[in-house]
Structure formats: C-alpha cells, structure tokens
Amino acid sequence: MTDKIINIGILGLGTVGTGVVKVLKKYDCLKIKKIAVRNTNKKRDVDIEGILTDNPFEITNDPDISIVVEVMGGTDPAFQLVTDAIRNGKHIVTANKELLAKRGPEIYELAREKNVAVLYEASVGGGIPIIMPMKQSLAANKITSMAGILNGTTNYILTKMEQENSEFADVLKEAQELGYAEPDPTSDVEGHDAAYKLSILASIAFGYRININDIYCEGISNITPVDIAYASELGYKIKLIAMASIKDDNKLDVRVHPALVSKTHPLASINGVTNALTVYGDAVGQVNFSGPGAGQMPTASAVVGDILAIVREMDMTVNVLPSMKCTHKLNATIVPIEDTVSKFYVRFNSLDQPGVIGHMGMSCGNHGVSLLGVIQKDMLLGGQARIILLTHEVKESALRAAIDEISLHFSTKQIANVIRVFR
Ligand code: NAP
Ligand code: HSE
Q1: Nearest residue to 66 (alpha-carbon basis) of 117, 12, 112
Q2: Of 96, 319, 407, 419, which is most buried by a Cβ count within 10 Å?
C-alpha cells in the first residue's frame, strides 16, 4: 500500500469508532495516533493504551496526523472539529450523515479550498458501497430517480409489526430493550435519519445542493397492524421509503414517508435492519444495492475503505481526485408535498349505511380523484365499518381536498390513516 507510516486521528470511540480500531489493526502502515472521547475512564473493548484524550483539538491540531476520522456524531462540536482539521490540511473520513446533511456545503467548500478529501461512504447504508458507485461507476448515467429503505431501525419495527401482528409502541419498546433502537428513537422513527441520508444521495445523483429542511419527512408511528394487514391483502408491504426523482423542469421530488410497496418490488422483500436502494439510470436501467445498513463492523468496513482510498491517492498526486470532491453549487428547487403525485391508500371509519360509499365516490370525483378500488370488510363496535379507498395517481392537494369533503359528511367518524402508495 505505502512505505510511509500514515498517522490517523479518530474523533469518537463508540460503536463505529471501536470497529474502525479493530479493522485498522490489519494495516501496519496506518497508525492510530490519538482517539478523542468524552469520558477517558469508560471501559473500552479495544486496546487503546496511551492514545485516548478528552481534548479533540489534540487531534485536529496535530501536524503529524494526516487523516481525521469523525465518528462522534451530531453537529456540535463535530462541525467545528472537522472544519478545524480541514483548515490544518487534514483529509476527513466521516460516518456522520446529520453533519453532512446540515453543514455539508460549508465542509465541502472548505475542503475544496484546502485541497483535501472528505469521504463519507459510511454515512449512507452503513457497509453497503453506495456513494462511490454512484459517483464513479454510475457517472455515465443521468439518474432519473431512486428509492430506498435507508433506516434499519424503522424497517426492523415494521417487519416485526407485520410478522407478529403487533402495535408500533410495543415493538419499539422491545427494540429499545434489545438495543436495536436508541433510547431516544425520534431521529429514526420520525424519518429524520433517512432524510439526512436521502439528502446526501440525491445531491450526488442530481448534482444540486439540498436544504435538509425542504425534504418532506413523515415517520412510521401512525402505522398500525390493521393497515399492514389491509396492505397485504391488496398485494403490498408497508415500508419507510426515502425517494427522490428529478422532473422535466429540474425540480426535485425528495421525500421520506411510509408507503405501500408492491410485493413484487425488490424493496418489499427487504426485512429487519437491512438497508436497500434502487437507482434508475438512463443507460444502466435499474440497479439494486442492499446489505447491512449499520452495525459496528459493516460501518467500519466503509470507513476504513475510505481511509485506504485516501492513502492510495496520497502517494500518487498532490491534487485530490475529482470524485473525492463535491462538485455542485446550485441549490435544488424541491416540489412541495402538496404538488407531488402519488397513489393513495385511505382508511376511514364510517357509519354502515346506504349511500356512504356513493358519497365518498362523489367527493373523490368532485376533486378529480379517480378510485382504483374500494374495500369494506370489518365491522367495528357501534355499527361502524372500515372502508379503504385506493386511488389512482393524483396530486396530493386534490386528494386532501377530497378527504376534507368526505370528513364533513355525517357518516364519517374517523379518517383513520392516509398512506401513499410507492409502487
Ligand atoms: P456512539 O456509539 O454514540 O459513539 C460516539 C463516540 O463519540 C463516543 O465514543 C463518545 O465518547 C464520542 N463523543 C461524543 N461526543 C463527543 C465530544 N463532544 N467530544 C469527544 N468525544 C465525543 O456513536 P456511533 O453509533 O459510533 O455513531 C457515530 C457516527 O456514525 C454517528 O454520526 C452515526 O450517525 C454514524 N453511523 C453509525 C452507525 C452505527 O451502526 N452505529 C452506522 C452508520 C453511521 P464516549 O465514548 O466517551 O461517550
Ligand atoms: N439509526 C440508523 C438506522 C443507524 O437505524 O439505520 C445507521 O445510520
């Protein structure tokens, strides 16, 4: 690889940092000079004798360190540390999707000025190689759309709910007890984690900077076993889907929400903590990636892969390769969710009386919503019926107007759920 010894500094020694230390042991030429943590007295399961510090600036200011690995998470102090390290001429490898989604443009711009690499394969899809294949192997394509399951925690919860016919809250609690979900699960279950990852992927695929706040984001806490069972009867699974596409006017439709996915689509068979991404390119057609989206060793695999890529280049050239730089400058215009087009699954609780379904059909017609199917099956207490409408593709604002009109009818007792249909 290289005859020289390359000094590496690591910010963070949690799940991912520990995996990185384990994998780096294989490489004699890569020396971990220092690791920064919050608490130097905590018991660690790797040998880090004499290299632990609670002062991360000892890493970012050390002139002997060439590569800084940021695996501490969050934006503060990670942003300051990463930018200090770049100013001091260090290459960066990070797994931190939140940092890149929120502060990426500033980091990439500084890295360009300082001619250093910022690599982040582990930030999306854990151990699955996605970023470099998209930047390099698929570079000949105009990417038209992508869709993925980018969060393992929510996919684990939805899979368990389906397999065990369980409620969201029960499965979440069990997942927390088993360590599959964080004590504060908000970022995962509300879709923020998937949105961070989608913003990174979509900016590579479409060449625009994406403001994370422009991504429509809806989590899975409203999904019930009843919806999962109905979806299954209709030929679908329910998944938290992160999707992005580019329109003819170059606006981007970028969103994260639960969706019914046809059982015949590759994403429907992705279960448990596995992540997957389907990308459509004009030359290649459909490409599917899948694998371990998180975990100590899979994520460390991606981090160390990035370190090795930088080390190879350090010996070859004084200029950072274009694929290791961020090339886009324009901000994306995102299609507002009201203007997006989807098929919909809508579940109502209604009085079971003559004319109720007719009235629903009429309200849909009034707003240009065309129905693909209607199901009325289970009776609820109090003489109510569960009614499911499945629509053809329709603009979201039209669907919402139809639902508003239906909700005003005396027979409508509850709009129990509205879920978009992906494919
Ligand atoms: P983690 O287990 O919580 O570890 C965080 C580490 O950073 C800990 O060692 C902590 O020190 C240290 N740290 C935090 N704040 C610090 C500060 N202000 N100063 C010094 N050290 C600090 O996190 P993780 O799961 O390894 O995740 C790290 C990053 O990788 C995150 O950005 C995450 O999103 C990303 N990622 C994680 C996975 C995964 O499977 N876990 C997969 C892909 C990407 P102490 O040990 O002393 O508390
Ligand atoms: N919280 C993330 C997930 C971990 O559940 O997928 C890796 O990004």
Answers
A1: 117
A2: 96
Distance CA 328, CA 389 (A): 42
Q: How far is it, in rounded angstroms, from Cα 150 to Cα 313?
A: 30
Task: Please give the number of the atom of ligand 1 that sits closest to the Cα of 126.
Answer: 43
Residues with C-beta less than 6 Å from any ligand 2 atom: 126, 151-153, 188, 193, 293-294
DSSP calls for 200-230? HHHHHHH--B--GGGSEE--STT--HHHHHH
Residue pair 183/176 in contact (Cβ under 8 Å)? The answer is yes
d(CA 369, CA 193): 33
Q: Mean pLDDT over residues 1-6, rounded?
A: 82
* Pocket-forming residues, ligand 1, beta carbon under 6 Å: 12-17, 36-39, 42, 56, 71-73, 77, 95-97, 122, 126, 294-295, 299
pLDDT tens digits for 373-387? 999 987 787 889 999
Q: Are 145 and 243 in contact (CB under 8 A)?
A: yes
Q: Which among 197, 237, 239, 343 is annotated as catalytic?
A: 197
Q: Are 92 and 112 in contact (CB under 8 A)?
A: no
Look at residues 225, 239, 227, 231 and name the one whose alpha carbon lies nearest to residue 167.
225
Among 13-27, 268-282, 307-321, the minimum mean pLDDT is found in 307-321
Residue 420 and residue 222: Cα distance in Å, rounded? 13
pLDDT tens string 348-371: 999 999 999 999 999 999 999 999
Distance CA 47, CA 215 (A): 42
Question: What distance in angstroms lies between residue 182's CA and the mean position of ligand 2's atoms?
Answer: 9
Q: Identify whether the C-beta of residue 275 lies closer than 8 Å to the C-beta of residue 149.
A: yes
Instruction: Looking at 265-355, list the stretches that DSSP marks H as alpha helix, in order from N- to C-terminal side.
Output: 296-314
